[in-house]
Design goal:
The complex is a heterotrimer. Chain A is mostly helical. Chain A has helices spanning 3-39, 46-66, 77-106, 110-132, 149-156, 166-188, 190-200, 202-207, 212-238, 242-247, 249-258, 264-282, 286-292, 310-324, and strands spanning 145-147, 164-165. Chain C has ten helices and ten strands. The radius of gyration of chain C is 17 Å and the shape is globular. The chains are: A mainly alpha, B mainly alpha, C alpha/beta.
Amino acid sequence: MDILNAVVAVLNFVVIPAASYGAQLALGALGVTLIYGILRFSNFAHGDTMAFGTAITILATWGLQALGISLGPLPTALLALPVGIAVTAIIVLATDRAVYRFYRVQKAVPIIFVMASVGVMFLMNGFTRLLIGVDEHRFADGARFIINVRDFRDMTGLAEGLAFKTTQGLSILMAVIVVWILFWFLNRTRSGKAMRAFSDNEDLALLSGIDPEKVVRMTWIIAAGLATIAGTLYGLDKAFKPFNYFQILLPIFAAAIVGGLGNPVGAIAGGFLVAFSEIAITYPWRKIAGYLFPDWQPDGLLQLLGTEYKFAVSFVILIVVLLFRPTGLFRGKSV
Amino acid sequence: MSTNRQAAAASHWRAPILFAILAVLFILEGTVRNGMFSGSWNTSLAILNMGLISAITALGVNMQWGYAGLFNVGVVGFFALGGLAPVLISTAPVEGAWQAGGPRMLIALATAVGTLALASMLWRHMPRGKLRGLALTALLIAGFVLYRGLFDPAVTAIESNNPARHGNIGGLGLPILLSWLAGGIFAAAAAWAVGKVALGLRSDYLAIATLGIGEIIIAVLKNEDWLARGVKNITAIPRPVPFEIQLQRNPEFMEFANSWGMAASTASGIWVKLCYMLLFLVVLLLLILLAELALKSPWGRMMRAIRDNETAAEAMGKDVTARHLQVFILGSAVIGIAGAMMITLDGLMAPVGYNPLRYTFLIWVMVIVGGSGNNWGAALGGVLIWFLWIKAEVWGPALIAFLTAPLPASSFKSGLLEGAAHMRFIAMGLVLLLVLRFAPRGLVPER
Amino acid sequence: MNYLSATDMRGGYGKADILHGCTLNVEKGQIAVIVGPNGAGKSTAMKAVFGMLPLREGRVTLDGQDITALSPQERVKKGMGFVPQVNNVFPSMSVEENLEMGAFIRNDDIAATMEQVFDLFPVLKDKRRQAAGELSGGQRQQVAVGRALMTRPQLLMLDEPTAGVSPIVMDELFDRIIEIARSGISILMVEQNARQALGIADIGYVLVQGQNRYTDTGQALLADPEVRRTFLGG
Ligand SMILES: Nc1ncnc2c1ncn2[C@@H]1O[C@H](COP(=O)(O)OP(=O)(O)O)[C@@H](O)[C@H]1O
Ligand SMILES: [Mg+2]
């Protein structure tokens, strides 16, 4: 039994990828859950907002690269992020003004908002295609690895290698920083508390003199920021392709619902839960079984589900939660 | 849903006039040849046929949305699942495939379904507590292991049976029209499963759950080669109408074509498309008739009462969730039928083509523009939006070229011309939002 | 001159009126109590006074100023505080944050006011970090009242502050309300427990079907055999 190599393999193939993917999902789910908490609908345009924000960030990155500006070992995209966030925030505020506010004044039922968000999704999708096309773009520059396989082997003398990509480290680090700032904002500042109050009890918030439009604007700006950061990290890690951002909508919704829609802590937990399940279930465990039980020769790959079906994992998690605990693990808004 | 249903009933002439305009558009497409129209009846009828399929899909979505306010974001999945029916029901059996792994596959699938059924029974009948959770987990794990033990070898066996040409389980060789019905049943079964879980909760949850099932069905079609060869596609799906080549070899038809002064290829193409058109029209009209009858029945009145005031209906003792489940299944069945019809029309099952933007969201634009709650409206929206969607591919760049004509050639100009293709998405999003806001009752409002 | 005067209010939620000419007056530092059967429109009348319901007819004045056209938020700024009947706290926020949100429109230092609220309801000080949704019914009502006091209102409106609390807690709450009134704040209160409420009322209104049926001092209403028979159960 070779526990050391098994642990390294688990870290390398499951824990690190899942932690970084989980960080990206958590940021995405935070955006969805905040919108839900304040505006009370599931925003189907969120995936395409992520794509749009990322597209702007990529354009800005190219601009910076053309000027010869870089961040050394870190991706230049980090410098371009503020541009992406700002432009996305403006666009998202414009859609609120032009689309959602009307239904808010009308007090339309949530499903109408959802449908309007589908219209916005179309628009965002079109804008993204116009800006950058439908092809795949890799825009990560700087150092590729924090630890690469060969160095790790040389360092430890183990047979199994371990790679830790810069983009993975960055995803985790950025998520920690962003979440910390977000929670500081929500729990410590007047505006953040007003947002929570509004999410908790809209009528009482109005009675207390909290301006709903201001809260809504703030929410959109934060959601745009979260979407752009999540999208950029995801794009840095995997490569940018607009359609992927439509597909990531399902795991993001699953994460937000698992955690309880409207509950930020839940969204983070949900993001990691979905990411770890997805990767653990689609990973072929044969190699690791080989380290642990050298005498066992299984016929299959010991893969519970093919990677093609990774979205099925989110779906099953979603179904299980809806069946057994529709308010989510962390008690979100009512069913 | 319209907010102002009492508003003056639209004039009686509104729908007929709109359908007439639509007819004129198709006639122009068939006869006038200029920058805007192709002047080819083959093109015109091809657009019309796909338009009719879109209309049937829109009809199904309209039953869910217009009758009950259910938002289905997985239309593409139900549509694709319906498309599986012609492959499994009507293509010729694949020699050796059934012997290789058919029974094992059936047993594997039965095991999966049985495990889930058993799990659900266990959950309902065992007393609450830790033991129940443990028993459930154990059952699911055992069921999964057993299922994979049966399923994996069956897949390998089927897929290694003449993999270059087949490698799939093959069909039953039954009449193709029967497969349309089967397509409806396939989609209905999936709808039952999703609806059972997601209905009765917040309205958004159904939307999210259908989004998921849609993606999963497409993933299954792309990856389960034993089922329908995955991305390797299935061709040679039987047709309910003659082949062009048969017509061209038929002297009587040739004479007939000559009497109209048409080339053999053109005439045979038009003939085949007309046959399809008739078939599709029959299905469409039949479905509209049934849908209208249902809507006017006590069942339909109750559906609308529930949609307009769920709380009041619930207070009156109506089982809202059960009604929603019914209408969700029926609507999905109609979508499935349309899916089977498209595969028949194409003669090809190619899962990579199932794009949610095209098969879910475009259908939604059709329903909203046509007039949610009105079956004729949905049908009109289906054909009209499909026509515009296809023509926008030509008109968009033409418009941009016309507008940018005075500009000197530049990268900006070429960028705009290239981007014109993407304008369709923006245009559709805009149409959806504008109609939703300014004319929520659509072109043909609900009566 | 009455501090609050709402005269001949008519209006409702949709087409049909709920209030059919309802009049309520409260004098400075006095306790006014509204009683009446369920569905009489008591809560509706409170909402109307607070500007949460469009009035078809009638006017509301506060300290001689016409406030009929003002929004609820503007009324808060004018010195009114309201504790709704239900959903009157922010459940996921701590007690302290609930109070802070109550003072949202204030830009000055709120620490002193918060101390006053804690003096009035000492339990809240111990539970200041706990989420309001986790408190008992009585404590939650204290949070709700405390929240409304944070703007230092001149008129405090309470809609059934003792709904669903035990008799001991109820007595305690009534004591606190009297204490608030002693400090010069006018109180307009709806109560189910008509006997106790009228016992502390300077003026009582019996509301039936959106109209004033009886108006008198609390003691007089308690003594009126007709009122006793129909509304106080003998
Ligand atoms: N939000 C509302 N929308 C429509 N009708 C309401 C609403 N709230 C209360 N009503 C109706 O107004 C009437 C008076 O209700 P309410 O003022 O709450 O009575 P009370 O507080 O005296 O028990 C009742 O018939 C009730 O059904
Ligand atoms: Mg009341």
